[in-house]
Amino acid sequence: MFVSVEIITIVISAVGLLLALGGTMFAGFAWCIRRSDSLRTDLAGVEKSLGARIDGVEQKLTARIDGVERKLTARIDGVESSLGARIDTVAADTTELKIAMARLEGPQRHLIVATH
Fold first, then answer.
1. How far apart are CA 9 and CA 20, in angstroms?
2. Alpha-carbon separation of residue 9 from 15, 17, 23, 61 (angstroms)
3. Cβ contact 19:25 at 8 Å
4. Do 102 and 96 touch, CB atoms closer than 8 A?
């Protein structure tokens, strides 16, 4: 059996083309894997950086909220004591008013004869 040079050339060209395409595809896939690994590493660094910044902001906000809470508690305590004193004053005045009204509206005097 005799194989012509053209057939051998076509077969060798096809094998070479398949090896070139396969090698190119393998190299492209390897590049994609390497690139995704480098992105993952970059993202891990960014994640650590953002995590640190978020923790710092959280601590600042916690301190600020605690300060505002202390100030509001002090103000509420002051208002509460002031209102408590005013309510006690009103209660004492009300008691005195009740006593005065009882004296004015008290029972009729028995020694004076009432006219109809």
1. 16
2. 10, 12, 21, 76
3. no
4. no
Phi-psi region of 115 (alpha: psi -120 to 50; beta: other; left: phi over 0): beta
Instruction: From residue 53, give the alpha-carbon distance in Å to each of 5, 42, 48, 49.
Output: 71, 17, 9, 6
Q: Helix, strand or coil for residue 16?
A: helix
The H or E element containing residue 98 is helix 5-104
Residue with tokens 């194989």: 3
Give CA–CA dist 55/49, Å, rounded: 10
Could you tell me which residue, 8 or 43, shows the higher pLDDT? 8
Whole-prediction pTM value? 0.43
Tokens of 82: 């002031």
